């Protein structure tokens, strides 16, 4: 509910503003320790990324309430936004976007960690689980860049707005595609903020969609084996449908004005 989200936002904002906050039966304040504020900014940013790789990866709609709170906090407390991006880029290099290359002397285990895989006791997580986590983080990022906290001061620009999404898309299409990963990330990104990008960039956006269909999808196909076609097929269908309808659908779960009356 919108009212619940406001409560969460106010509590986080009060904590970061140095006000005493009630939690689990005790009162806490960042002023209780010289590094209190820095610690809270760090842990809070880390928690938002964890929501992306956990909650959002399983429940796509949850990207929007989490993103709108972070967007508002980022506006008032830019330090949280900076640390959030640092955590996000480390956990999901594709959010830069960047495909790390294996350097000489780097062990396979270390390289897999650089690619975003979780490695525990020399065991690498399964591909499906890895893709799900990356998908959740990209969806959260794509939601953040288009949302603003509705009760904030709208005078200034969004602290990390749609221009960053436009840049992400352009840089992504300049990279050589990876099997599995590229098709999934492009589809996630376009499903979540394609509509917002279409409204903002108009004809330039449609030129990009044509480029994806005519040039980039064949390049993804070239590196994709027959057993990895699922996500690529979904991306193909999505782009085709959008070009035919000359419209990108609104993402599922987007927060409507009526949500804030709940």
UniProtKB/TrEMBL annotation:
Localization annotation: Cytoplasm; Nucleus, Nuclear pore complex
GO molecular function, one term: inositol hexakisphosphate binding
One GO term (biological process): protein transport
GO cellular component: a single term: nuclear pore cytoplasmic filaments
Predominant subcellular localization, coarse grouping: cytoplasm
Role: Required for the export of mRNAs containing poly(A) tails from the nucleus into the cytoplasm. May be involved in the terminal step of the mRNA transport through the nuclear pore complex (NPC).
Name of the protein this chain belongs to: mRNA export factor GLE1
Gene assigned in the entry: Gle1
């Amino acid at each position: 509910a919108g009212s619940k989200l406001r409560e969460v936002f106010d509590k986080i904002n009060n904590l970061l503003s140095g006000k005493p906050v009630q939690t689990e039966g005790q009162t806490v304040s960042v002023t209780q320790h010289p590094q209190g504020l820095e610690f809270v900014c760090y842990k809070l940013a880390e928690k938002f990324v964890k929501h992306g790789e956990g909650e959002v990866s399983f429940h796509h709609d949850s990207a929007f309430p989490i993103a709108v709170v972070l967007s508002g906090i980022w506006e008032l407390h830019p330090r949280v936004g900076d640390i959030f991006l640092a955590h996000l880029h480390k956990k999901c290099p594709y959010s830069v976007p960047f495909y790390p290359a294996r350097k000489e002397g780097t062990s396979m285990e270390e390289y897999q960690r650089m690619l975003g895989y979780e490695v525990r006791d020399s065991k690498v997580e399964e591909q499906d689980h890895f893709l799900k986590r990356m998908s959740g983080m990209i969806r959260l990022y794509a939601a953040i860049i288009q949302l603003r906290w509705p009760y904030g001061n709208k005078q200034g620009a969004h602290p990390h707005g749609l221009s960053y999404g436009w840049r992400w898309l352009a840089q992504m299409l300049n990279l050589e595609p990876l099997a599995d990963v590229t098709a999934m990330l492009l589809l996630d990104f376009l499903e979540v903020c394609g509509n917002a990008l279409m409204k903002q960039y108009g004809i330039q956006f449609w030129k990009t969609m044509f480029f994806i269909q005519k040039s980039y999808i064949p390049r993804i196909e070239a590196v994709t084996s027959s057993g990895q076609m699922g996500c690529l097929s979904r991306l193909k269908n999505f782009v085709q449908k959008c070009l035919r309808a000359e419209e990108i659908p609104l993402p599922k779960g987007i927060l409507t004005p009526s949500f804030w009356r709940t």
